[in-house]
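ping. complex inputs:
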Amino acid sequence: MTASVLPPSPTAFAKATWDDVAPYFDDLVERRLDASTVDSWLHAWSRLEELVTEAAALAMIAYTIDTSDPEKEKDHLRFSTEILPKMEERSVELARRFVALGHSTPDLATTLERFRTSIDIFREENVPLFSELEELSARYQRITGSMTVEWEGVERPLPQLQPFLKSPDRAVRERAFRAATQPYVEERGALTGLFDRMFHLRQEAAQNAGFANYRDYVFPAKFRFDYTPADVERFHEAVEQQVTPAVSRVLEHRRRRLGLDVLRPWDLAVDPYRAAPLRPFETVDQFVSTARRVFDRVDPVLGGQFQTMIDEQLLDLDSRKGKAPGGYCETLHFRGRPFIFMNAVGLVDDVMTLLHEAGHAFHAFTSHRQPLIWQRHPGSEAAELASMSMELLASPHLAQPIGYFSPQDHRSAWLEHLEDILLSLVHIASVDAFQTWIYTHPDGGDAEARDEAWLRIRSRFERGVDWTGLETERIARWYRQLHIFMYPFYYIEYGIAQLGALQIWRNSLKDQAGAVARYREALALGAVRSLPEMYLTAGAKLTFDADLIGELVQLVERQIEQIRAQLPAAAA
Ligand SMILES: [Zn+2]
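pong. complex structure:
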């Protein structure tokens, strides 16, 4: 059988095992590779990766939509634990062939740098380790995806408690907070066991590759070429210095506005300006068609891309039992299309999540013009710049008749979002500092010590909330942070990108059209430029500088004050 003719679509790989995929890699290993064939060879390899990753993405999407179907779980696991890790191994082999050829063009420079790094850190003995980590990740998803709460006689998945966390009735909020936290408290034993194993595997993989610990391994593994662990420490310090006090001010204002002696963790989501939480939409159809108009207003090309997602059913947005938690945007590389998954329940947060994921989707559409798969997908610092900037660029268009809100509600939604930006920076710093501690401290493998470290790090960054008597609940917060389990160290990227997005937003306050144009230009670069260049193209500086962070925080706080002045005065 000749493997050189690739199947016409990813459907051919839907039920594939590694044995069905391997011959195509064998062919690329054996095929003649020299200056005259390098282009066609690269295209064939890229096409093969498109087909297999799209088949894997489709299996993952099907599984996260219905985690209770064992057949879908099996398909997803076959890709994530068997096919993709083996493909990674063969890709390194092909990358070695390509690098040895000495062929380069300006648009291949970043790809070559990544290939060289992957070759350097690849160890055959790590393949089964990463495969086991994938299985453990799926187990984490299974445990958390099946968590339900009995709420007023109805069994509900956890995301459906969100509206009650926003209830103006403090007793309801407290009940919802405790109910949403309880499953994590109950599963602590299972989750701790799971994490212990993940920790051990990750440290072992790092050591196999010649690194002291998994944190040091992660920098090259995630292609973090433009910043160091020391920069990240500077980021933590800058957040502590500049953002933590701003968050304290925001929370103090909230405390007074709510007329409370102290803020408890269940007082953070309620809108202090409204008797009932905002309900921006009733049905998913409304949710989607309104988003379509909003994106059209940001830029008609982006609106058109979103319409394509509607037409081609590339959205699964509402919360249903059995769906995995969270939200994501996955790229279907063969079709050049993105897919958005989330758990919407009709709140402002859902609107923001959709804007965020749509930013990723626009990135996927726009960068698909790059000919090779490796030239399209930049690191998460660039990816999250696309998504977090979209939250800010689309926000001015959320008022009716285009958007979801009356002018008054639009202001309070925008206020909530700006406050969330400050709160999230503090959360990001604590999650990253915590993971740094786990993988660099000798006690990182000890479950008790981890929980204590979380409490210590959390109180360094998060002030203004009274957690007295709620230590167990506060600890449970990190067990709920799926990144720590499934995508270790994927978090600082949100912080870096938020600072970039705030700069793009600052540009848009002077010149909305210009800021959107530069944003689109940066997205079109895909992965063919370095991270600082990509940021510059978008109109932002890649920064860990406390002064610039301070400036941006001030800008956000000034906006917050302006909006507060336009909202109704306190009833008291
Ligand atoms: Zn994102």
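The two ends are 80 Å apart (CA to CA).
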